[in-house]
User: Which sequence fits this backbone?
C-alpha cells in the first residue's frame, strides 16, 4: 500500500525451547496508515505483545524473527541489525502495561523524560528539562514543574502512566505502540488514559497500535481491529465492520466475555472454555478449533487461510459466524451435543451454574 | 532529620557498650597492675611500707619499700583502687579529651603511637578498598552484561579459585613472585613520599582487596542480573538508549545495595586483615602494633585499638545506611 506508514509482511517470531520451537507469532501481516489506530486484540499468549516487541527491536537475541517490516520506506529489521541509534524511541515508541514498574525508581521523573531528548535530539540539560515540563503538561499532569523533581514512587498509578506516555512522546514519534496501557490501572483511571492517548494521537497526527485483551477498549477508538489467537491473525476488519458483522467464532466468543450494559440483568457472561494452545510445532488444523462452538471436521486437519469477507475484512475460518456454513455447523454441533473437536456444547447453555463452568475451565 | 539523630544516638550507644565490654574484659582477665610493676603486684605493699612484714623477696625488714612505693603510685595513677565503672569513667573521659593513656610497656603516650601508626594502616585500608571496588565493579558489570556466556563462566571459575585462597596465602604468593623473584616491589615499607608509600602498598592492598573484590563482584553480578529483568530496563531500551547507558545510568545504581551492605560489614575483615598483612609486608602500621601489644598485655594500647576500630566500624556502617537513601529515594521517605 502506497500511503502506509508501517507495513508488516508475514511476520513470524519463534523461540527455541527444550520442548521444541514455540511459534509465538506466525505469519502476521498488516498495514497502518499515518495517523490511524490499529487495535490488536487477543488473550494472553496470543502473540500480540511479542509482535509489538518485534517491531520495537526488544526481543531477546535468541528469538528467531522472520518476515519484513517497513516503516516509511525503511527496513526495520535491517536497522536493528545495523544498530540504528535514533529510530526506536524517536520515530517509533512504546508504552507498557505496568506504570508501577516501567519507571526507574531511583531517577527523578524530569531526568527520565529529558534523557530521550538529550540522547536523541542533543538538547542541553536545561532545555530538555523545560521540554519535559511541557510534555508533562500535555499529558495532563497538574503542577508539572513540581513533578519534574519527584520520584516515581511519589505518584499514583494513573499519573505514572501519564509520565510513561510523556516519555514515549518526547521525541515526537510517528508511531506509538501501546501494550495494554490500562490493564494495570484502576477502572476509573482507564478511560482517562485511553481518551488521553486518543487526543494525543489526533493532535500529533501520530499512528497508534493499541494492544489489548478487551474488545471494549478498541471500540470507538481504533480505525481497524486485528484479532489474534495463538500467533495467528484470526480476523481483521475496520472497527465498525468487526462489531457489526463479525465473522470469526473467536471474535464472537471474545465479545461475549465482556459485560454489557444493554443486556438484561443477570445475563451470564460466557467464558471461553479451555485455554490457548501451547504453540509448539506447526498445528495441523485451526488453533482455535478445540475451543470453538462452530468447529467441523475440516477445522481439525486443515488450517484456514485469511479470506475476504468484504472491504478490508479478512477472516480465517471454515465456518464463519453469520454465514450459511457457520450457522449450519453450529446447529449440527448443538444437536449432537458435542463439536467435531469433542467440546461439550452444554458448557455454553446459559443455565450452567458458575461453579461448573469454573471446573470445566480448569480441566481444559 | 530525626532519622539522622536516631542513627547517631544508636551509634553512640553501640560505642559505649563496646568500649565498656572491652575495658571490663581487659581489666578483669589478669591484674592490670602486674603489667606495670610486675611481680610486686602480688605483694602486700601496705604492710611492707608500714614495716610490719618483710618484703617477700628481701630478708631484711624495710627492703622493697621503694618498689612498693611505685606500686602505690601506680595504683593511684591508674585509679586501680576504684571500682570498675569509675575506672571506665576516668578512662573514657580522658579518651574524649584525646588522652588515651600511656603504654604500660614503654610509657609512651598512646595518642602519639596512634598518630604515628594509624595513618599507615588507614592508607593501606583505603588503597585496599580502592582495589576491591575498582576491580569488582567493572568485573561485575562485564559478567552480568552477558550472563552465563563465555566471559561470565570463565570469571565465575576464576572467582571461586581466588575465593579459595586465603588472604595471607595470597600475600605470601605475591610476595614470593613480585618481591623475591622479580623484585618489582620493595620488601619493606618505604615512607619517603606518597609515591614510594603507594608503591610499597600495591602488594599488601592487592592481598587485602582482591579476596574482597571477588565477593563484591559475585554480589553485584547477581543484583545486576536481577535488575536487568526489570520492566524499566525494557522501557529504557524502548527509549532507544544504548546498552552501555542503560547499564551505567539505569541499572548499576539500584543494584548496589547488596554490595554496599557487605562493604560496610567487611570493614572488620579489612581491619583484621591489616594485622596479618602488615606483619607479612613489614609495614609499621597500627595493625602490627596491636598484634604486638596484645601479646605483651599492653592493655592501654589494645583498648585504644579496640576503640578506634569500633568507632570506625560503626561510623562506616552508619554512613552506609545513609548512603542507601542516596541510592534509593524510596528509603528517604521511610526514614
Assistant:
Amino acid at each position: 500500500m502506497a500511503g502506509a506508514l508501517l507495513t508488516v509482511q508475514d511476520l513470524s517470531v519463534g523461540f527455541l525451547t527444550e520442548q521444541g520451537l514455540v511459534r509465538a507469532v506466525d505469519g502476521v501481516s498488516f498495514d497502518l496508515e499515518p495517523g490511524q489506530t490499529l487495535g490488536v486484540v487477543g488473550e494472553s499468549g496470543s502473540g500480540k505483545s511479542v509482535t509489538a516487541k518485534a517491531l520495537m527491536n526488544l526481543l531477546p537475541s535468541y528469538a528467531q524473527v522472520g518476515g519484513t517490516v517497513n516503516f516509511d520506506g525503511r527496513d526495520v529489521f535491517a536497522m536493528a541489525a545495523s544498530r540504528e541509534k535514533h529510530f526506536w524511541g524517536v520515530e517509533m515508541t512504546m508504552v507498557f502495561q505496568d506504570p508501577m514498574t516501567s519507571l526507574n525508581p531511583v531517577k527523578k521523573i524530569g531526568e527520565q523524560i529529558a534523557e530521550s531528548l538529550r540522547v536523541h535530539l542533543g538538547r542541553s540539560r536545561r532545555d530538555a528539562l523545560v521540554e519535559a515540563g511541557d510534555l508533562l503538561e500535555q499529558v495532563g499532569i497538574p503542577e508539572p514543574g513540581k513533578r519534574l523533581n519527584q520520584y516515581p514512587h511519589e505518584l499514583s498509578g494513573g499519573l505514572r502512566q501519564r509520565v510513561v506516555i510523556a516519555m514515549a512522546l518526547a521525541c515526537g514519534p510517528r508511531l506509538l505502540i501501546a501494550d495494554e496501557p490500562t490493564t494495570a490501572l484502576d477502572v476509573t483511571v482507564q478511560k482517562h488514559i485511553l481518551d488521553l492517548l486518543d487526543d494525543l494521537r489526533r493532535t500529533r497526527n501520530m499512528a497508534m497500535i493499541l494492544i489489548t485483551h478487551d474488545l471494549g477498549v478498541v471500540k470507538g477508538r481504533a480505525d481497524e481491529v486485528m484479532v489474534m489467537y495463538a500467533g495467528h491473525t484470526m480476523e481483521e476488519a475496520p472497527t465498525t465492520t468487526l462489531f457489526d458483522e463479525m465473522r470469526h467464532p473467536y471474535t464472537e466468543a471474545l465479545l461475549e466475555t465482556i459485560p454489557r450494559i444493554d443486556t438484561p440483568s443477570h445475563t451470564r457472561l460466557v467464558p471461553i472454555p479451555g485455554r490457548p494452545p501451547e504453540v509448539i510445532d506447526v498445528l495441523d488444523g485451526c488453533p482455535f478449533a478445540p475451543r470453538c462452538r462452530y468447529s467441523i471436521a475440516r477445522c481439525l486437519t486443515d488450517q484456514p487461510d485469511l479470506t475476504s469477507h468484504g472491504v478490508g475484512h479478512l477472516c480465517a475460518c471454515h465456518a464463519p459466524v453469520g454465514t450459511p456454513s457457520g450457522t449450519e455447523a453450529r446447529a449440527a454441533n448443538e444437536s449432537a451435543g458435542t463439536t467435531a473437536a469433542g467440546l461439550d456444547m452444554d458448557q455454553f447453555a446459559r443455565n450452567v451454574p458458575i461453579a461448573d463452568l469454573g471446573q470445566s475451565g480448569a480441566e481444559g | 532529620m530525626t532519622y539522622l539523630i536516631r542513627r547517631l544516638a544508636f551509634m553512640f550507644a553501640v560505642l559505649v557498650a563496646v568500649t565498656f565490654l572491652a575495658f571490663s574484659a581487659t581489666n578483669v582477665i589478669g591484674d592490670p597492675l602486674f603489667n606495670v610493676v610486675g611481680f610486686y603486684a602480688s605483694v602486700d605493699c601496705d604492710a611492707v611500707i608500714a614495716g610490719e612484714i618483710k618484703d617477700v623477696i628481701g630478708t631484711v625488714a624495710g627492703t622493697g619499700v621503694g618498689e612498693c612505693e611505685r606500686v602505690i603510685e601506680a595504683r593511684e595513677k591508674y585509679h586501680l583502687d576504684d571500682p570498675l565503672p569509675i575506672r571506665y569513667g576516668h578512662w573514657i573521659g580522658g579518651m574524649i579529651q584525646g588522652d588515651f593513656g600511656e603504654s604500660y610497656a614503654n610509657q609512651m603516650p598512646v595518642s602519639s603511637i596512634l598518630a604515628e601508626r594509624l595513618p599507615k594502616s588507614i592508607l593501606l585500608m583505603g588503597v585496599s578498598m580502592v582495589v576491591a571496588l575498582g576491580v569488582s565493579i567493572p568485573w561485575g558489570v562485564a559478567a552480568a552484561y552477558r550472563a552465563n556466556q563465555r566471559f561470565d563462566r570463565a570469571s565465575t571459575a576464576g572467582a571461586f579459585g581466588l575465593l579459595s585462597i586465603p588472604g595471607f596465602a595470597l600475600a605470601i604468593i605475591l610476595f614470593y613472585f613480585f618481591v623475591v623473584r622479580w623484585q618489582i616491589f620493595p620488601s619493606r615499607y618505604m615512607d619517603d613520599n606518597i609515591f614510594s608509600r603507594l608503591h610499597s602498598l600495591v602488594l599488601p592492598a592487592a592481598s587485602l582487596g582482591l579476596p574482597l573484590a571477588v565477593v563484591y563482584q559475585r554480589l553485584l553480578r547477581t543484583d545486576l542480573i536481577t535488575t536487568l529483568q526489570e520492566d524499566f530496563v525494557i522501557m529504557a531500551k524502548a527509549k532507544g538508549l544504548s546498552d552501555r547507558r542503560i547499564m551505567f545510568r539505569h541499572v548499576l545504581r539500584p543494584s548496589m545495595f547488596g554490595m554496599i551492605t557487605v562493604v560496610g560489614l567487611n570493614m572488620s575483615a579489612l581491619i583484621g586483615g591489616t594485622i596479618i598483612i602488615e606483619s607479612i609486608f613489614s609495614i609499621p602500621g597500627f595493625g602490627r602494633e596491636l598484634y604486638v601489644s596484645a601479646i605483651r598485655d599492653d592493655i592501654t594500647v589494645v583498648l585504644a585499638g579496640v576503640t578506634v576500630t569500633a568507632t570506625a566500624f560503626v561510623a562506616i556502617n552508619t554512613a552506609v545506611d545513609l548512603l542507601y537513601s542516596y541510592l534509593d529515594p524510596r528509603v528517604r521517605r521511610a526514614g
Residues 350-364 of chain A have pLDDT under 50 and may be disordered. Chain A has two domains: 1-91+173-267, 283-311+318-364. The interface with chain B takes residues 56-58, 85-90, 93-94, 96, 98, 101-107, 115-116, 119-120, 151, 153-154, 164, 167-168 of chain A (CB under 8 Å).
